[in-house]
Amino acid sequence: MAFVEDGSLFYGPNDPGVSAATWNGSTVYGHLNRAYVDEFGAEGTGIAFDCWAANIVGIAHGDTVVIDGTTYVYRGRFLGSDDAVAIMKLQA
Fold first, then answer.
1. How far is Cα 76 from Cα 89, in angstroms, rounded to an integer?
2. Cβ proximity of 86 and 39 under 8 Å
3. How many Å apart are CA 55 and CA 21, to the nearest integer?
4. Residue 34 and residue 68 in contact, taking contact as beta carbons nearer than 8 Å
5. What is the Cα–Cα distance from 67 to 11, expressed in whole angstroms?
6. Given this model, what pLDDT does residue 80 score?
7. Which CATH class is domain 17-91?
8. DSSP 3-state assignment of 35?
């Protein structure tokens, strides 16, 4: 039996600093950032949204994502160091 973690324990809708991201009728919770560290350890600037990876399997390049009333375009993602957290790269 595979071990499955509950992402809502890390990104709950009532947690401080957590925002809702909505696209194509789906909503996930995470943190909106203006800087990130990519999968190779390089620091980057730009808009990124950290969220539970299992919650964003249906998103595609070019989809629009609304966070805190602002619309962004999804430009890709990479996984965090534990593969459970995804970092979505967004464009305003």
1. 5
2. no
3. 11
4. no
5. 14
6. 74
7. mainly beta
8. strand
pTM for this model (two decimals)? 0.80
Q: pLDDT tens, 27-83?
A: 999 999 887 666 677 777 789 999 988 888 889 999 999 999 999 999 998 887 677
What residues contact residue 27 under an 8 Å CB cut-off, 6+ apart? Answer: 20, 21
Residue whose token pair is 């800087």? 35
Q: Going by C-beta distance under 8 Å and a sequence separation of 6 or more, which residues neighbour residue 80? A: 50, 53, 86, 87
**pLDDT the model gives residue 38:** 67
Please determine, for residue 84, whether its predicted confidence score (pLDDT) is greater than 80: yes
Using the structure block, give the residue that is written with the tokens 């809702």: 20
Instruction: Please calculate the CA angle 45-30-88 and round it to the nearest 5 degrees.
Output: 45
Residue type, 20: A
Task: Give the closest residue to 56 by CA, choosing from 17, 88, 92, 12.
Answer: 88
d(CA 28, CA 65): 11
